[in-house]
Design goal:
alpha/beta; Rossmann fold; 2 domains; 7-stranded parallel beta sheet; globular
């Protein structure tokens, strides 16, 4: 394991790894709250590999359920790195790929299977995946799987797992849905909270612009020119909007591509490989696909459209500032979206910093009132307690 860790460039454990791994090695159930980008894949993969019993059978010893196809591939690749030097077989099963090739892989045998709930359940129904010898189940990004409607599939899978097993659950948020799932399918789990109080990494700067809808694209060009990001994700709300922004941006900037759920899986895989290899500098994406993106070099997140859910804002921003690196997030807010911005600020318990670019300054209907010396110190005050609305100066006009 030490040689594999060195080869995978793991030099010291992250806080999540340092807290989660010892508990998981003891063999009991563990539930951890941790945002993405904190090294949680290794946190569950290392104990699985260490406790894995080498056997001649073809049935898996561990199964990892994830919300998206992209995350399934990334987890498989990461586990394979950590299994370097071992005769451990690891495969990913997910929709959008021919099921026959996956059946063939499963027939050859695999100790660890990573997959999306729908495709895993499909294999179970066909009999191509058997869980009789299963020792460990991992629910990765459990909150996201529940958000996109995988609860029925997850419960069907868990009911088919041996009762004598270890269950590991990791989630960015522990809401009532996750708690109910844990209460029903986990046995007296150790509960570990690695989430920062602000629900966003300290290494991420968060800013917003106020801009009319029709001027968003021009602002995007100006912002990219000013920032010159190493790699960036531009988030849009819709698949059509993602295509439109990518098409226009490709005419102005090099190294641009897009990814969304309507694309063929083979095309999505090509885009993700190119993005991880640094061949794509600007990736335009939707939320569902963007949640599975795990690339360390992402320096900028640009919310071209605000997300429909405030929780999705946290997940978007979590694509940058990973593993202690610095990152920055910019959100484009139309004058009508003041309440949406406020909801995000309440959730993260922090005010986003207002930014401006020449030619895009906000024009308000009335001049702001004169500030007193005490008002100038408002930004230096500590954030409001959780659940209370943060105070913002001159809310008029955003």
């Amino acid at each position: 394991m030490l040689a594999a860790l060195a080869a995978a460039a793991y030099h010291e454990p992250s806080p999540v790894q340092a807290g989660f791994i010892p508990r998981a090695l003891e063999g009991g159930d563990v539930m951890g709250q941790a945002r993405t980008g904190t090294g949680k894949t290794a946190a569950f993969a290392i104990p699985i590999l260490e406790r894995l019993q080498t056997k001649k059978g073809r049935k898996p010893s561990a199964i990892v359920l994830v919300p998206t196809r992209e995350l399934a591939v990334q987890v498989r690749d990461e586990v394979s790195k950590l299994a370097h030097g071992r005769r451990t077989r690891c495969i990913a099963v997910y929709g959008g790929k021919p099921i026959r090739s996956q059946i063939s892989q499963l027939e050859k045998g695999s100790e660890i299977v990573i997959g999306t709930p729908g495709r895993v359940l499909d294999h179970l129904s066909r009999g191509s995946l058997r869980l009789e010898e299963l020792q460990c189940v991992v629910l990765d990004e459990a909150d996201r799987m529940l958000d996109i409607g995988f609860r029925p599939d997850i419960e069907k899978i868990l009911r088919r797992c041996p009762k004598e097993r270890q269950t590991l659950l990791l989630s960015a948020t522990i809401d009532k849905g996750v708690e109910r799932l844990a209460k029903r399918y986990m046995v007296d789990p150790d509960i570990l909270d690695f989430s920062p109080s602000t629900k966003a990494a300290d290494t991420i700067e968060q800013h917003y612009f106020t801009v009319e809808e029709m001027r968003k694209f021009d602002l995007l060009l100006k912002l990219l020119d000013r920032e010159n990001p190493e790699q960036a994700i531009v988030f849009c709300r819709t698949k059509r909007g993602t295509d439109r922004v990518e098409r226009k941006l490709s005419q102005k900037v090099k190294g641009v591509s897009c990814i969304h759920g309507d694309m063929q899986q083979s095309a999505r895989d090509r885009v993700m490989r190119s993005f991880r290899d640094g061949k794509i500098r600007i990736l335009v994406a939707t939320d569902v696909v963007g949640r599975g993106i795990d690339v360390t070099n992402i320096s900028h997140i640009i919310n071209y459209d605000l997300p429909q859910s405030s929780d999705d804002y946290v997940h978007r921003v979590g694509r940058t500032g990973r593993m202690g690196r610095e990152g920055v997030a910019y959100s484009f807010v139309t004058p009508e979206q003041g309440n949406e911005l406020t909801r995000i600020e309440i959730l993260i318990n922090s005010l986003l910093k207002r930014d401006e670019i020449e030619g895009f300054q906000t024009v308000t209907q009335a001049a702001p009132p004169q500030e007193s010396p005490n008002e100038n110190k408002l930004d230096e005050k500590k954030p409001a307690p959780p659940g209370q609305r943060p105070r913002r100066r001159h809310r008029r006009g955003l």
